Amino acid sequence: MHCKCQFLLSWKCFARMLVANTSMNETEHKKEQLIQILQRYGYPREFGTVIAAELRTEKAMNRMISYLLQGKPSSAEEIADEMIAIEDDRQRWIQKKTAEYNNQKYNELLAGGVDDRKKEES
């Protein structure tokens, strides 16, 4: 039984590592794609690197790539403004999900009662 549990834990760790590496590779691919598009528009590689670093996530980089290909911005300022807008949207989404989680926990506390929680902790 002990060996079986250890094997399952090892397999879960391996699976997490595999997913993390795949995700990292996809993120790195998007980062490079974003940098190359900006270079085609005549901006230095460093500008693309900074934009990608600020966006951080694959989804945010996808949004920026779509903007660059469809919107065809005419200045670095427009690109920076879009980067800020994308990051603001991401921060609002994080705040919303955090508030939803906290509200769920509060409702569970109200439904279960405060006295019940104290008994469980004892």
Rounded to an integer in angstroms, the radius of gyration calculated over CA atoms is 22 Å
- Low-pLDDT sequence parts: 1-5
User: What's the rounded overall pLDDT mean?
Assistant: 84
What's the helix-strand series? HHHHH
Major β-sheet, in short?
Answer: none
**Domain module tally:** 1
Number of strands: 0
Distance between the termini: 31 Å
Binned, the helix content reads: over 70%
Query: Total number of helical segments?
Result: 5
Strand-pairing-aware structural class: mainly alpha
Q: What spatial form do the alpha-carbon principal axes imply?
A: elongated
| Fraction of residues in β-strands | under 5%
Describe what you observe in this structure.
By secondary structure, the protein is mainly α. The protein has one domain (about 1-95). Helix content is about 90%, strand content about 0%. The protein has 5 helices and no strands. Helix 1 runs parallel beside helix 3. The protein starts with a helix and ends with a helix. Mean pLDDT is about 85; it is low at about 1-5.
Topology:
Elements: H1 2-40, H2 45-55, H3 58-71, H4 76-112, H5 114-121
Helix pairs in contact: 1-2, 1-3, 3-4
Top keywords for this entry?
single chain; 122 residues; mainly alpha; 89% helix; disordered N terminus
